[in-house]
Amino acid sequence: DAGVIQSPRHEVTEMGQEVTLRCKPISGHNSLFWYRQTMMRGLELLIYFNNNVPIDDSGMPEDRFSAKMPNASFSTLKIQPSEPRDSAVYFCASSPGQPQFFGPGTRLTVL
Amino acid sequence: SQKIEQNSEALNIQEGKTATLTCNYTNYSPAYLQWYRQDPGRGPVFLLLIRENEKEKRKERLKVTFDTTLKQSLFHITASQPADSATYLCALINSGGGADGLTFGKGTHLIIQP
User: Fold this and answer.
1) With an 8 Å Cβ cutoff, are B34 and A97 in contact?
2) Is the pLDDT of residue B32 over 90?
3) What is the pLDDT of residues A44-55, one digit of tens each?
4) Which of B59, B88, B102 should we substitute to test contact with A (largest number of A Cβ atoms within 10 Å)?
5) How does pLDDT run across A18-30, given as a tens digit for each residue?
6) Are residues A91 and B44, on separate chains, in Cβ contact within 8 Å?
7) Residue A16: Cβ-neighbour burial (10 angstroms; 0-12, 13-18, 19+)
């Protein structure tokens, strides 16, 4: 079975540019989560969806961040405009309830 | 404020010994507590889940205990092997259940020395 798929795996961009991260959850999982990991703050929940509906976006740091889940097999996390402090590894995870299954992450570097 | 604390210092254990990792939390009433393993450059991988009404859970060489009075979970790896070297994260769901987002500790880096 394919696990959670994320793209791109690495992204290097310049400050001010728009960045879009993509996630394909495991088929049949009805919950999808976006996390961000940094050395300083560890792994933090940004937003999660149940049945494609955003449930809790309290972890989204600013209005520059937005997430969508147009259907059960695809989600995006967009940062516009990006800033150097957004540099981190972004993980997508999916779940049928518990536990959660993580993708390989996208390493974002904003110069 | 809510906190999940894991030993931030690396834990060095001799191969064959039991490794014990600690997760303490404050101002949570977790319905579940989970342990994940994370290797460099990879996403966390689920290991064990223990519910608030369970005191102990085992899986092969792994054992988790959960003391809601002490607000602590212990994670044990018996007969440790160098391949067990990784960062181990504990995570809580602070609700009555369901697919809520996890709150993670920062993890403990475990090194098993041959």
Assistant:
1) no
2) no
3) 999 999 999 999
4) B102
5) 999 999 999 999 9
6) yes
7) exposed
